[in-house]
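User: Run a structure prediction on this.
Assistant: Running it now.
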Amino acid sequence: MKNTSSGLLCWFVLACLWMCPIAALAQQNPYGNALTNNYLSQTLGPTSPGSAQFGTPYLGTSALAHSSAGAAAYSPTGPPLAEWGPFGVYPHLLNLLTYGNGIQAQPGVNSTTVINTVSPGVFLRMGSLWFLDYTPCLAFYSNPIFHDTLDQRVVLHGATTNGNWMLSLSQNYVDTTQPVVETGTQFELQAYATAMNAVWQMGGKSSLELGLSQIFRISEGLNNMHEWSTAEWYNYQFQPQFGAALGVTGGYDELSLGSDNPFEQALGRVNFQPGSKLTLTVMGGVEDRQFVHPSGPSVLNPVFDASARYLLGTGTLLTVSGNRVVTPSLIANDLNVITTVNANVRQRIIGRMFFEIEGGYAGTTYTSIVPGPLPKYYFGTAPHAALAVIRSDTRTYGKISLSTVFGTRLTGSIFYMISDNASSQSNFRYSGNEVGLNLDYRY
């Protein structure tokens, strides 16, 4: 799929920002706030391993049927492989081999395939403020019903401080072709995400966060989306172990098919770390979303994002997380509400060998704005098209894995996973099993 003019414009704007004195906006997460950038983190935990290890955060409500758990973002911890003045080069490589069933290339058809994905990448450090990470991903399917793919991911990030201000800018690009639960097909998606953030340290205990984001999601034949949003937070650190924040967000989703979605959120956030064993973060509030062209009654939904980490003992870590988000679907005139819960226990067996067991649940409802003729002239309250839940999915998974570190740079793991997707529409029901081998090299 070719890059669109809007995507090129996004990169042109980025280049202009880089040339400006404020070009270092954004130290914070390049994916933004999970509640403000609604479609940036909608996945069922590690969905099924299989094809590319990236792209998932940009696919809106679409939990991939077979994406890998997603390699953690690369972060160098030592000297580079090569260095020229302010530039440092760090290579990395991920190879994932899986065999699984219950994978959909078309709705209602569950297939079996071996998938071999190879993801060589390079991380380029530019001085102390900027980095660029590029990772292509080649996926090879043994079953001819799927087609082999070449995915790409580019991450550009920079940050700086100026007095009491911390500023940052990040730009992400993803081009990925994978089987997706939402449509039951394998297709290509592109996404461009720009985030600019500033944090003002107002005093010893209070700070103000300001953020702007723009995200374009593009795919032929599906519901393309352009979103612009802003988020403002006031933080107060009551004690070193306890902090809280209040935030408001607003945004506009412009969609190629169906009704556009303006939305607003009122949010609160709490961070609690009473000691070295427990870390708790809870963020939540309400979202009000409206519909235009065609219009519909506004939708009020609770939203949240929470995580807890607890060190049970020497070498044993328990992690629990959950979220609830509202986001436009890839399907025309559909709005999705997704609730997920995931839990993971990681146990060190001996030396640098670890055993993990994890599981999760995701419930997704698809609410349709039923299009219909609206009168051109009316008195009183504007008429609305009807809203109706047309599909409901429940996804569950369980996974066990064994991993170890070879030397200082190579991590290897084997895993087995079982997953199930129950849907009110029979074409989107599947059950699958997967076994795989993962090798992750990071210089």
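The helical segments are 5-19.
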